[in-house]
Amino acid sequence: MKRYVYICLGLIIAFGTLPIGTGASTAPNDGINWITFDEAQKFGQDASRKYLLYFYTDWCTYCRKLEQSTFIDKEIAAYVNQNFIPVRINSEQKPKLAARYRINGVPNLRFLTPMGEDIAHWPGYIEAARFLPLLKYIQTDSYLKMGYSEFLKQP
């Protein structure tokens, strides 16, 4: 009987120190400092940076891929954190908000002016190498002067 108790205690101690869960996390990564839509509203019209709205759902495969690859890219995270107010919105938990921005599928990225006016959107997954030029195109106000393909041709 003692031997059985010691074996059980040993297993409890051994497995109790392992991290729980081994799958990929669907939580926001450590790179981009995401805030909720409610928190973003507190910025109001005093914000000097543009908004990046990221609409997602918990079950979305490409949302997880964005979070595990594009959004954790160090250059992307630094650029977003410095130049945008990043807002993460679960479309299923905020259906009225998703409808307001005409979100028909996820992932969906929306760019807004500091006043909350729509600039552009990107439906679907985007790789880090393609996302950084898009961020720069929006942040530098180049969208007011030229098309995206013209912007990409610049040195």
Question: How would you explain this protein's 3D organization?
Answer:
By secondary structure, the protein is α+β, with helices and mostly antiparallel strands. Helices cover 43% and strands 16% of the residues. The protein has helices at residues 2-16, 37-43, 61-70, 74-83, 95-100, 128-139, 148-153; strands at 50-56, 84-90, 108-112, 118-123. The protein has a 4-stranded mixed beta sheet. Strand 3 and strand 4 form a beta hairpin. It is globular. Residues 1-29 have low confidence and may be disordered.
Q: How are the secondary structure elements laid out?
A:
Elements: H1 2-16, H2 37-43, E1 50-56, H3 61-70, H4 74-83, E2 84-90, H5 95-100, E3 108-112, E4 118-123, H6 128-139, H7 148-153
Parallel strand pairs: 1-2
Antiparallel strand pairs: 1-3, 3-4
Descriptive key words:
155 residues; alpha+beta; disordered N terminus
Q: In a few lines, what is going on in this structure?
A:
This protein has 155 residues and is of the alpha+beta class. The chain has helices at 2-16, 37-43, 61-70, 74-83, 95-100, 128-139, 148-153, and strands at residues 50-56, 84-90, 108-112, 118-123. Helix 4 (74-83) runs parallel beside helix 6.
